[in-house]
C-alpha cells in the first residue's frame, strides 16, 4: 500500500505579531481541502521590509508557536532562522523541498504581493515548481494574475493587521479581538518593551 503525499501550504511572513487573521486563513485553507497542513514560515527579515522595526525573531517565533499550539495541522516553520539574511522565498523553498522530497509545497500569498512578484528573486523558478494560491486583500481587487496563480475568491476577508495591533499596543488599547488569548499579555509586554 503506497503512502499518501503530504500537501503543505507555506505562508511566509514576519508575523510581527501573529494574529487571528493568520490563524483563521490557515484553518479555512485546511478545512476546505486546499492542503493537509499549513506552515507559517517566520521570516527574520524580509528583503522588501528592511526599514520595518521588528520584534526580535526569537520573540516573534515564540509568540507564533504559542498561538497555534492547539491547532494540529498548523505548524510554525523556523527554517529561515538558519538561512542567510535577508530571507528570499526561493532559497527557503529550495531548502524545504530538499529536506522534504516527498512533500508537495504550495505558496500562499496575499493579493498585495502579486504586483511586485516579478521582482522576487527567481520568481520564474517559483512559478515553474510551486502552485501559488492568492488570498484576497482589501484594495487589491484588480490585480492581474499569472497563469501559475490561483485566486482564492471564496476565502473571507479577515480584517486584521499586525501594523494596527502594534499601534493599539502603543496607545494602550485593547487587542483581545485581534490576537489569540494565549499570547495577548505576552504580546503587549514584548512590544511595549521593544518600543522603550
Q: What would you say this structure looks like, in words?
A:
This protein is α/β, with parallel strands linked by helices. The protein has one domain: 3-Layer(aba) Sandwich (Rossmann fold). Helices cover 32% and strands 17% of the residues. It is built from six helices and six strands. A six-stranded parallel β-sheet has the order 3-2-1-4-5-6, with helices on both faces. Strand 2, helix 2 and strand 3 (74-77) form a beta-alpha-beta unit. It is globular, with a radius of gyration of 17 Å. The protein starts with 5 loop residues before the first strand and ends with a helix.
Features:
196 residues; alpha/beta; Rossmann fold; six-stranded parallel β-sheet; 6 helices; globular
Describe the secondary-structure layout.
Layout: E1 6-13, H1 20-31, E2 37-42, H2 57-67, E3 74-77, H3 89-99, E4 103-110, H4 123-129, E5 131-135, E6 149-151, H5 162-171, H6 184-194
Parallel strand pairs: 1-2, 1-4, 2-3, 4-5, 5-6
Termini gap:
59 Å
From the alpha-carbon coordinates, what is the Rg to the nearest angstrom?
17 Å
Can you identify the CATH class? Alpha Beta
Report the average pLDDT across residues: 92
Anisotropy-based shape: globular
Order of SSEs:
EHEHEHEHEEHH
Question: Concise description?
Answer:
This protein has 196 residues and is α/β, with parallel strands linked by helices. The chain is built from six helices and six strands.
